Amino acid sequence: MNVKENLHITSQELMKTGSPDAKLEAEVLLRHVLKIDRATMFRDLEENLSEDNVTNIASLVNRRIQKEPLAYITGIKEFYGLMFEVSEGVLIPRPETELLVETAITKAKLLKKNEINIVDVGTGSGAIAVSLAVNIPNSNVIAIDLSKSALEIADENRRTHGMYSRIKLRLGNLLEPVTENIDILVSNPPYIRKDRLHSLQEEVLKEPMLALDGGEDGLRLIAELLTQARERMDSTSIILFEIDSDQGIEASKISKNTFPLGDVTVLKDLNNDDRAVLIELNTSI
Ligand code: GLN
Questions:
Q1: Domain range holding 131?
Q2: Is the pLDDT of residue 247 over 60?
Q3: How far is the CA of 92 from the centre of ligand 1 (A)?
Q4: What angle do CA 232, 238, 242 make, to 5 degrees?
């Protein structure tokens, strides 16, 4: 069987399970096994595959059919133009979350500080922390997670991107491991409402519950995080956290109650859904 035939068979199989990206996923799985880039794959369409390779591709296709997320099978995911290692121990970085990174980078410049202390709560793979450290050169980042196995992945990722000395990892709950003054607090916390958990896609349910379950109303951890943040935010600083598309009103209410002097804005993602809350604090004037 040659590369082209294999791609055809694999995409047919993946299509049967309802994947809208069957063709692309077939390419990714084949390239992962052969360890080749896209250009090489197209050059070698007529090349024959060894039996071993055919078997290996088939077993990955099987895992995919069982709804294992593609990123867990390949072990990598792109986020904000950077490649991140991922595993079952961490949430797979989502494109919507790039909104947090983009906003934090823009706001960091406006803070006009020589050094910026960033804290990322619930860092998971470290995708947000690393993207911020790479793109905000005058920053130091503290990345926190409750999960030890998540911090191991975050450690790999900060090293791969040369950010070892700029990102400190701490194990703990929300802001408990932080005593420093914070300029930018960012978080993609678990925010899925309890009653919505069971209706998530089968693939999403393969991700850590700890990264998804936001309790009864999905906002419990956010409320707790904001309360803890009150004593730790610098007088001129920002807070940015991700929310579900139906949490905009409630989350901004909690934000205004906790920070009556802050400017609260709900930000929309590329689908025009509410996706993040920005709190700008300036109590020095
Ligand atoms: N955005 C993720 C999802 O809908 C949830 C991530 C989170 O809870 N922080 O699957």
A1: 88-282
A2: yes
A3: 9
A4: 105
